[in-house]
Amino acid sequence: MSESKVPSLQDVVAGTWGARYRIETEASLRFGALARRLDAFGAPRALSELAERASRDETRHAAHCERFFRAAGGQQLTGVDHVVEYAPASWAEPQRLTYEVVAQSCLAETQSTASLVTLLEGAESQELKAVLHELARDEVHHSRLGWAYLAWARPRVDFSFLGPLLPGMVAGSAGPEIFKPAPEGADHPDLLRQGVVPHSLRRQVYVETLESVVFPGFESLGVDAAAARSWLGKTLSDARLIPG
Ligand SMILES: [Fe+2]
Ligand SMILES: [Fe+2]
Fold first, then answer.
1. What is the model's pTM?
2. Is the pLDDT of residue 1 over 60?
3. What residues are neighbours of ligand 2 (ion), with CB under 5 Å?
């Protein structure tokens, strides 16, 4: 595609399923590593089993994403075949593991669940509806792993290091483009019918999920979300996205 050409709806749809394929393949590896580390850390077997199951789920999700990518005319698909841990290797394992679980489960999977639920109603085909339903059902469990881990780890791990890091983690999981104006073609309402959340709605769901699920979830489990709350307020105000 030349640079000046506006991407078609199908380009945006294929691009989204292709990006999801990468995310699912990466998530499968991350959960596989988390399962081993949770066991090694002495976490309850129920938590490592959730992570093992999540790793298998993500492989199945990737296959669905590939199917929709091809159906939308996508050609070049690339998966992720190895992952670099989010946390610095210099930290002690309790902090590293906690950071990893929070980034993957409490942030990424909670947001993914919210997006999928948003998509369920608008999906145009039964096949898409069924897949979105399957994905949403699984992602709920993947996010639950994070919240259950925090509840278990609370008396064992000092969470005070997390609060100041949350703004960077939240920003990183959203991607910088979410607070920018919609790229060409990315805000079309018809995208919803094909399993893609239009840009502005995606941002709205993202912010609402932070405010109604993620931040209160952290606070109820002893993780200070004050810095993340003020980061969000400032980001929305800088982007002139706070309703007047
Ligand atoms: Fe997934
Ligand atoms: Fe997931």
1. 0.93
2. no
3. 109, 139, 142
